[in-house]
Amino acid sequence: MELREKLEILADAAKYDASCASSGTEKRDSRDGGLGSTEGMGICHAYAPDGRCISLLKVLLTNACVFDCAYCINRASSNVRRARFSVREIVELTLDFYRRNYIEGLFLSSGIIRSPDYTMEQLVRVARELRETHGFKGYIHLKTIPDADPSLLAEAGRHADRLSINVELPQPDSLKALAPEKDAGQIRVAMAGLRTRIDEAKEARAEASVTRVALAGGRRAAAPRFAPAGQSTQMIVGADASTDATILDVSANLYGSYRLKRVYFSAYSPIPDAAAALPPSAPPLVREHRLYQADWLLRFYGFTAPEVMAGGEGGMLDLEVDPKLAWALKHRAAFPVDVNRADREMLLRVPGLGAKTVDRIIAARRVRSFRMADLARLRVSLRKVAPFVTALDHHPRGGLLDRADLRALVVPRDGLAERNAILPAGLIARPVQLPLFAHV
User: Tens digits of per-residue pLDDT, 285-340?
Assistant: First the structure.
């Protein structure tokens, strides 16, 4: 099979894995020798939390697999066309694409071939050859196999920037039913082992830094690196009966127990010849979108999982509005919030104010009092924020927060703010598209 044909098959097969953001690693470049970089703008585009776009070669080593996970298009019993790269082919593709300025790094996963140990060994060989043979300093993300020998996972962490192990499904019973070869307990054990090694490497690097300062210029061997960008995981949404509440509880536990950098959500996509245990149709994509927004609230806005779910009904997030707005509509007694006096924690709960915007408000109000026009200059959606804040020149009109139709006033309508009644006098509403994370 031609290399181009393999690439078409295995790049397409990798699209179901969402966990390919490349943020958080250490900064490296090749100005002092070697090849590649983990910095700058850059065929898969991943977006870091700070907005940088990272181009990655995202492929599978092979889409052949001895496992028969019911929800996976590449399962053993699936009638799909199979392909496999050699280690040399992956290495040469990565280097060739980098030299053409197509990519800045590699995201490599694989089906299980022969055994978990054999497959993991092949993935590690790719990373080792890129690093040691070719001096590649770009970003490398390896999907690790929890059943593989711990020594292989340890070597993977020495070469990769980020490692990830997919928990696949939120509940162990669902995983047992739909992926009988996988063990939820073993997945957690492997994640715990990665966390321990990551923590040990960070401590060693911190101690080495202190030692270098104490030696005042003396030379000392650098501390060993281990997955400096941490670990991540992915859950499939909609393949079982798990509610959003269950998914967010599991996410919160994963962040707390294993210090994950990210939990990714992937909406279940119906596959040919699917098992009867799987739903016949995909969940609405907006459900995945709301889970990402809810995850952002857990990580950066000080919300707990129960607080986020308080905005929904029956264990499911509100699909019509973002989770923060849903929470605010059910906690109207907490508003309005004075943008000139409220603390950061409360400002973060105002619909329409993102974390960076809140920090700018706090910094700017030290020297001047905020008016609504000042919020507009920060690109805040006034239509969304106006009912929930007070400013020097604005207070929500009498009884607005108690109105039964408040939800109708703030729910986005095709990006247009038709209902100017809730805006302060003299300000004009402009179409605003709600971004995924910035102003939740």
Answer: 899 999 999 999 999 999 999 999 999 999 999 999 999 999 999 999 999 999 99
Q: pTM here?
A: 0.83
What pLDDT does residue 237 have? 94
| Burial category of 49 from C-beta neighbours within 10 Å (exposed 0-12, middle 13-18, buried 19 and up) | middle
Interstrand relation of 139-143 and 53-60 (parallel, antiparallel or unpaired): unpaired
Sign of CA dihedral 66, 182, 24, 136: negative
Cα 179 to chain centroid distance, Å, stands at: 24
Lookup result for tokens 């962040």 = 255
CA 42 to chain centre: 19
Res. 417: pLDDT tops 60: no
Tens digit of each residue's pLDDT (9 = 90 or more) over 178-191: 999 999 999 999 99
Encoded tokens for 181: 């070869």
- Percent over 90 (pLDDT), the chain: 62
Q: 101-104 contacts: CB < 8 A, separation 24 or more? A: 101/42, 102/42, 102/43, 102/55, 102/57, 103/42, 103/43, 103/55, 103/56, 103/57, 103/138, 104/22, 104/36, 104/37, 104/38, 104/40, 104/42, 104/54, 104/55, 104/56, 104/138, 104/139
**Is residue 159 exposed (0-12), middle (13-18) or buried (19+ Cβ within 10 Å)?**
buried
**Token output for 171:** 């509940």
Question: How far is Cα 252 from Cα 265, in angstroms, rounded to an integer?
Answer: 13
Q: Which residues, 6+ apart, have CB-to-CB distance to 285 below 8 Å?
A: 267
Mean pLDDT score across all residues of the chain: 85
User: CB–CB of 367/361 below 8 Å?
Assistant: no
Rg of the chain over Cα atoms, rounded to whole angstroms, equals 24
Written as six digits, the tokens of 22 are 């490349």
- Strands 337-338 and 262-267 come out as unpaired
Question: How would residue 153 be classed by pLDDT, with cut points 50, 70 and 90?
Answer: very high
Give the separation between CA 40 and CA 309, rounded to whole angstroms: 37
